[in-house]
Specification:
The protein is of the alpha/beta class. The protein is built from six helices and twelve strands. It has one domain: Rossmann fold. The strands form three sheets. Strands 1, 4, 5, 6, 7, 8, 9 and 10 form an eight-stranded mixed beta sheet that branches. The structure holds uracil (URA). Uracil binds next to α6.
Length: about 210
């Protein structure tokens, strides 16, 4: 099953960096830097529909009507802990974004998400809310995080994930077909432990060196 609002970013720069990240030999500092760089490039797609309004400005040569971002600042919500690996890249491109955090861990037996933290900026309605989580695996955590965002009033949500499994995409299509997904790859499948194959291993462990 696919998702009606999935954007696969197949840009060569993104694909090259992703392959470097997949390589088990890539050291932690490189892994983190590559994730931040890809995050910046995925944000470019996620922010494609932001509203512009023209303002009169004066260049060194003349006056012009220049397009500028309008409306409420976007919000970026990191799904802890691995989402933090994508957060700085989003803020590099949208420095005015407000930041929220949702803490979910995966029960390794049931693979179901358990919430332990939620801190969101006020007034999510009518502004772009970008949720970030590098791995869309079963989709349970992302779907639960999106539930929280919707309960808090979010109406325009985009999930940025580095990698997705078909199972996670199907889960989001079932539970949140209105939520856009921007990803660099939809991989083959999940293994019996819930890891994406071929994937890149445990993203949180590789970001934070907890392997
Ligand atoms: N979370 C990860 O970090 N990696 C996977 O492959 C699946 C979930």
């Amino acid at each position: 099953m696919t998702h009606p609002k999935l954007t696969l970013v197949d840009h060569p720069l993104v694909q090259h960096k992703l392959s470097l990240m997949r390589d088990a030999r890539t050291p932690g500092p490189d892994f983190r830097r590559l994730l931040r760089e890809i995050s910046l490039l995925l944000t470019y797609e996620a922010a494609r529909d932001l509203t512009l309004k023209t303002q009169t400005i004066t260049t060194p040569l003349t006056e012009m009507e220049a397009p500028m971002l309008a409306g409420a600042d976007p919000v970026v919500v990191s799904i802890l802990r691995a989402g933090n690996g994508l957060l700085d890249g989003v803020l590099d491109v949208i420095p005015t974004a407000k930041v929220g955090f949702v803490g979910l861990y995966r029960n390794e037996e049931t693979l179901r998400p358990v919430q332990y933290y939620c801190k969101l900026p006020p007034e999510l309605s009518g502004r772009l809310v970008i949720a970030v989580d590098p791995m869309l695996a079963t989709g349970n955590s992302s779907a639960a995080a999106v539930d929280l965002l919707k309960e808090a009033g979010a109406t325009d949500i985009c999930l940025i994930c580095l990698l997705a499994a078909p199972e996670g995409v199907a889960c989001m299509a079932r539970e949140h077909p209105d939520v856009r997904i921007v990803t660099a790859s939809v991989d083959s499948h999940l293994n019996e432990k819930g890891y994406i194959v071929p994937g890149l291993g445990d993203a949180g462990d590789r970001i934070f060196g907890t392997v």
